[in-house]
Amino acid sequence: MTTPVPQGKAPRRWLTRLSAISDMFAFPLRTSHYVELVNPLWTTHRMHARVVDVWDETRDARTVTLKPGSNWRLHRPGQHIRVGIPVDGRHYTRTYTISSPPERDDGCFTITVKKIDGGRLSHHIVRNLKVGDFIPVGLPQGEFYLPDASPVQPLFITAGSGITPAMSMVRSLIAQERLPDTVHIHYAPHEFDTIFGRELRRLDQEQAHYHLHEVHTRQAPEDQNHFTEAQLERLCPDWRERDCYACGPPALLAALERTWEEAGLSQRLHIERFRADFAPIPDDAVGGRVRFADSDLDVDADGETNLLRVAEDAGLNPPHGCRMGICHTCNTTLQSGCVRDLRSGDFINEPGAIVQVCVCAAAGDCELAL
Amino acid sequence: MSTKRPLPVDLTEEQIDEFGREMDAIYYETLESRGEKDRLYILRLIRTQRSMALLGRLVIYASLFLLPAWGHALAGWPSTLIVMALGVILLGLAKILENMEIAHNVLHAQWDWMKDPEIQSNTWEWDTMSPSDRWMHSHNVVHHTWTNVLDKDLDVGYGIMRVTPRQPWKPAYLLQPVYFVLLMLLFEEGVALHEQAIVDVVEGRKKHRDIRPLMKHIGRKVWGQVRKDYIMWPGLAALVALPISLVVPESPLTVFLLVAAANAVANIMRNIWAFMIIFCGHFPDGVYHFTQEQTEGESRGQWYLRQLLGSANITGGPLFHVMSGNLSHQIEHHLFPDLCSNRYPEVAPRVKALADRYGLPYNSASLWRQFGTTWLNNLRLAFPGGTTPPEPARA
């Protein structure tokens, strides 16, 4: 019940004092719990958003327009939010990038979600979410955004639903009437299966500084349907002078990282991953006995399963958010032993180190403060 | 090796194991089937409960506009008190729902499976004087593990009453009919002070200063409750009454006392109801008690058996079950304490049939029979002697 209050606009002091007094009427709850009965968007103890519109971008991707609660803080284009959705009675949390620019007059924002095969939550959002539903959301987070003032000439490289942060950035720059010379290379299966396809093409025609290159991976010839340095040279000859903002599947991002590293320009490449890119698990990875010290529980774990999952399978319910290592809700302390960070493959074995249990697995015996 | 007194049943160890496996099957099958409709149940219930609480308090306020001093056509003590009683009943029912069907079950981790951050056993705080973390220890850990085991389960007589002839008699028990009534009226306060540590201080095993942090912790929660019901809500009414009293001859003090009294009645109403339901769980006729020695090396089947023999159900309709927090299904609650309570009514017939097949008693009767025998036992056991239920236990 006493979940941390989302820190939105700095609350005024008199308001804080007033709510401290009014909370005494609601003890052990807070006034906000009763305000929620009238309108969930007015609560302060947690944040909801109301679905005000849904729109299908492609056959399996949908844009959901959300009206956030009163504690909302405007996002920077490129940032993402955590969304909580109940499916079959259980509450899940996932992270989605905001696809709208912050310059919207109606106070709403949009997320654009592609249905993943076997993805319980994405399926629910794309197919079952209705206008009028309330869903819990977090505040915008993430470091993937354009610098505020310094002029950069961006090169966006996006694939599939990785378009969303770039879309928010481009829309925002246009709304502010400060769109610099921009090149955008976007990979999508084919012309009619491109998220925001019509809008991108319209911008390409209307905006003198915006240059779109679409690569349709199902239609292009075999040697041109994926990222290569030759293709990059052809579509954007001055890529070395630009700041690249990229979002897409791990294979694309890995290829980009190689190219920019070989050119000695790694600092000009900015990457947003939709899912944690796990390092290959060595064959000699071993699990071990995991001890959850606060819960006084011991379980065996293998060297591949993340410790959040291990804890949940053991009946615990540790706090967690994104399940991909970005929100740090699941941070806990390693008391002893060794765990492996599944993304980097690095071992963490210093007692007292912070462990993100959703992206770490046991590497031998370990003890966690959970 | 088996010189210890076995459980009071006619079953072999193999049969008890099989009984345990059948009970497990019911449990896991029901756990599997939890889903969206259970979530909607608890969310709607919480919404209803909070609306009732707020409405109740507003109706109590509204009744103040009917005080005789207003002088309008509807004004008068009878109309004031009738409307106020309505508000009190709403508020009292809201408190009952919160304590019994919502908080008690949330604190049993029955709803943790939803992983809803708002409805979690480790963060829920309830509308009663006992801090929920303290209660979870004495209830979930001590009482539910050691159900009806003498000298282990603090709930056997709550340390002040003799509820089974197996507790040796002492003269202090002569007063237990008085304790019974006092505890009924002050149940909320009793639960807050229901701590092994306090018993230890009274019996000289611990010093006052050892339990000071604990008392502070309980004190903070008690203060929050008292401040809400007896300072803030009456105070706000009195504050509004202050300027009005210049025009309408009604003292703000009367207004303050009326609202405080209304809240007190709502709290006492909840106390009496909770006391009745909870006392019917383990103290009516036909409930078995056990010794520590009987529980040594207890198997899962034997544990189930002890829960079945040590608990009693109350019969009634769906609304009655909700208002009793489904503790009217005390047997099912003790067998499956972390199964969400809205499922107890559907597992009850299966448990009853299972008990019947094994020739075991299933103690279920009306509220009047269960509470009546609880009260009569209380009177009888105030004096030495008394009778234990028949052994071995048979249906």
From TrEMBL, chain A:
All residue ranges annotated as the 2Fe-2S ferredoxin-type domain in the record: 288-370
Pfam (any one): NAD_binding_1
Oxidoreductase recorded as keyword: yes
Keyword Lyase listed: no
Domain FAD-binding FR-type: 44-147
Keywords: 2Fe-2S, FAD, Flavoprotein, Iron, Iron-sulfur, Metal-binding, Oxidoreductase
Gene3D superfamilies: 3.10.20.30, Nucleotide-binding domain of ferredoxin-NADP reductase (FNR) module, Translation factors
Cofactor(s) in the UniProt record: FAD
Matches recorded under PANTHER family: NADH OXIDOREDUCTASE HCR (PTHR47354)
Protein family (similarity comment): In the N-terminal section; belongs to the FAD-binding oxidoreductase type 6 family.
Annotated protein name in UniProt: Ferredoxin reductase
Organism: Alloalcanivorax gelatiniphagus
Organism lineage: Bacteria, Pseudomonadati, Pseudomonadota, Gammaproteobacteria, Oceanospirillales
UniProtKB/TrEMBL annotation, chain B:
Residue ranges of domain Fatty acid desaturase in the record: 83-364
Segments crossing the lipid bilayer: 54-71, 77-97, 230-248, 254-273
Coiled-coil segments on the chain, per record: none
Keyword field: Membrane, Transmembrane, Transmembrane helix
Entries under Pfam families matching the protein: FA_desaturase (PF00487)
Signal sequence segment: none
Annotated protein name in UniProt: Acyl-CoA desaturase
